């Protein structure tokens, strides 16, 4: 049985408890992070910790513990659960208080929960060998997608729509332009140029995105941060997504139209390779 972490305690998963009055449960008043683990070590922990701090501060929430303690908890869970390859999920909520739309007083202790998910072979090449097919759907989420909140109902509905259509994921579209995937950032490649939406409140500032764009620039690849349409994506040479759980994943079909020759492209393959190479070297 898994050992999970709740508010200072390591417990078997069936003994860990959060209040029914928790604001994460009642109001989705909480934020989260997902950090991948390869070879028992954390990928880009510092980036995830920094984004967590930003999400908390944007919502006026207290950090439950400092970054060093957070790292210790991540490592302890990896060790206790014997995780080689997998994910660590972390969630912070504004804590438990009688139901009221107004925030509880600032003394209310936040809730901190972490658990692991084992994913043997998470970075194995065969996971990216086929690539994903995606459908497009309207983006019906709230306006502050740069804050990593636990309001994941619409992304979850998007995944269900993709599944119903026989696809792997959905790209969300707003005002004619692609924002991002249900739980990943979206890219196209035209010639030698990588195109991905600029940062703003409309998308999550992916930790994998930041690393991949930095590595692409270091490898002298051209990067354009701007919006693009589904039509432009369908006419692109390649497409791919990035996230902590999928790294760099080729996209081979959008709304039934094959991208390029309909197989994973060389730029996505190269980026996946250099990203994973650096991620493993810098893992903590
Ligand atoms: N999702 N965009 C959205 C909407 C996301 O939910 C995520 C991450 C990303 C990619 O961010 P990063 O590279 O920092 O993982 C982009 C995580 C993996 C999840 O919800 O499981």
From TrEMBL:
Protein keywords: Amino-acid biosynthesis, Branched-chain amino acid biosynthesis, Pyridoxal phosphate
Gene Ontology CC terms, in alphabetical order: cytosol
Assigned EC number: 2.6.1.42
Biological or metabolic pathway of the protein: Amino-acid biosynthesis; L-leucine biosynthesis; L-leucine from 3-methyl-2-oxobutanoate: step 4/4; Amino-acid biosynthesis; L-isoleucine biosynthesis; L-isoleucine from 2-oxobutanoate: step 4/4; Amino-acid biosynthesis; L-valine biosynthesis; L-valine from pyruvate: step 4/4
Enzyme class: transferase
PROSITE patterns: AA_TRANSFER_CLASS_4 (PS00770)
Named cofactor requirement(s): pyridoxal 5'-phosphate
Catalytic activity from the UniProt record: L-valine + 2-oxoglutarate = 3-methyl-2-oxobutanoate + L-glutamate; L-leucine + 2-oxoglutarate = 4-methyl-2-oxopentanoate + L-glutamate; L-isoleucine + 2-oxoglutarate = (S)-3-methyl-2-oxopentanoate + L-glutamate
InterPro entries registered for this protein in UniProt: Aminotrans_IV, Aminotrans_IV_CS, Aminotransferase-like, BCAT-like_C, BCAT-like_N, Class-IV_PLP-Dep_Aminotrnsfr
One function term, GO molecular function aspect: branched-chain-amino-acid transaminase activity
Biological process per Gene Ontology, one example term: branched-chain amino acid biosynthetic process
Family: Belongs to the class-IV pyridoxal-phosphate-dependent aminotransferase family.
Function, in words: Acts on leucine, isoleucine and valine.
Protein name listed in UniProt: Probable branched-chain-amino-acid aminotransferase
Organism taxonomic ancestry: Bacteria, Pseudomonadati, Pseudomonadota, Alphaproteobacteria, Rhodobacterales
């Amino acid at each position: 049985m898994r050992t999970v972490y709740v508010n200072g305690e390591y417990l078997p998963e069936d003994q860990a408890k959060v209040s029914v009055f928790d604001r994460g449960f009642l109001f989705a008043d909480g934020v989260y992070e997902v950090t991948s683990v390869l070879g028992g070590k954390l990928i880009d922990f510092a980036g995830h910790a920094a984004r967590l701090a930003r999400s908390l501060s944007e919502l006026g929430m207290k950090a439950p513990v400092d970054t060093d303690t957070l790292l210790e908890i991540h490592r302890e869970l990896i060790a206790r659960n014997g995780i080689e390859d997998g994910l660590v999920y972390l969630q912070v909520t504004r804590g438990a208080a009688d139901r009221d739309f107004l925030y509880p007083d600032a003394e209310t202790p936040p809730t901190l929960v972490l658990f692991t998910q084992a994913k043997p072979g998470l970075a194995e090449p065969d996971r990216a060998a086929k690539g994903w097919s995606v459908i497009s759907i309207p983006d019906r989420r709230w306006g502050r997608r740069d804050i990593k909140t636990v309001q994941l109902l619409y992304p979850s509905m998007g995944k269900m729509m993709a599944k119903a259509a026989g696809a792997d994921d959905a790209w969300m579209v707003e005002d004619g332009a692609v924002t991002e995937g249900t739980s990943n950032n979206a890219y196209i490649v035209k010639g030698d140029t990588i195109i991905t939406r600029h940062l703003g409140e409309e998308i999550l500032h992916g930790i994998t995105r930041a690393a991949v764009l930095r590595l692409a620039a270091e490898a002298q690849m051209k990067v354009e941060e701007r919006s693009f349409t589904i039509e432009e994506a369908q006419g692109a040479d390649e497409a791919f997504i990035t996230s902590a759980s999928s790294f760099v994943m080729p996209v081979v079909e959008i709304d039934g139209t094959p991208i390029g020759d309909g197989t994973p492209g060389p730029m996505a393959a190269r980026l996946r390779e250099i990203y994973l190479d650096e991620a493993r070297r810098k893992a903590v």
